[in-house]
Amino acid sequence: MAAAVPGLLADLAHEPQLREHFKTVFIASERTLIAELLDRARTRGELTQTADVDLVHALLLGSVFAALFLLDLPPTPELAQDLGTMTATALERTPDHGCS
């Protein structure tokens, strides 16, 4: 899997049609899921403000990418939990101007 990521990133950078398909299928479904999770967290009172879905998506994608592909950390449930918890903590500490 890890070996495929650099090739995928290169293909996405050089093939606009593939990049648009990837955004439409993969990225859009992730954003929808993240929006639903954030809405549920806000409803439960776990978030006190509305978070920017694109910003949260970038935080999660960047963290996961760095952990798995740059730092070579093992993809464990604990890693996922820690990244999620840290992202939630960052959301609570974000000033209102950082959220939509």
From the structure above, extract its key features:
4 helices; mainly alpha
Report what the structure shows.
The longest helix has 28 residues, at 16-43. 3% of the residues are buried. With 100 residues, the protein is mostly helical. Helix 3 runs antiparallel to helix 4. Helices cover 73% and strands 0% of the residues. It has one domain (4-98). The chain starts with a helix and ends in an 8-residue tail after the last helix.
At a glance:
This protein has 100 residues and is mainly alpha-helical. The chain has helices at residues 4-14, 16-43, 53-70, 77-92. The longest helix is centred in the first third of the chain and has 28 residues, at 16-43.
Cα radius of gyration in angstroms: 15 Å
- Average pLDDT level: 85
What is the helix/strand order?
Answer: HHHH
Largest β-sheet summary = none
Oligomer: single chain
In percent, how much strand structure appears in the residues?
A: under 5%
Q: Kindly state the number of beta strands.
A: 0
Question: What is the number of helices?
Answer: 4
The tally of domains stands at 1
Helical content band: over 70%
Identify low-pLDDT runs. Answer: none
Question: Outline, from the CA principal axes?
Answer: globular
The separation of the N and C termini measures: 35 Å
Derived from helix and strand composition plus strand pairing, the structural class reads mainly alpha
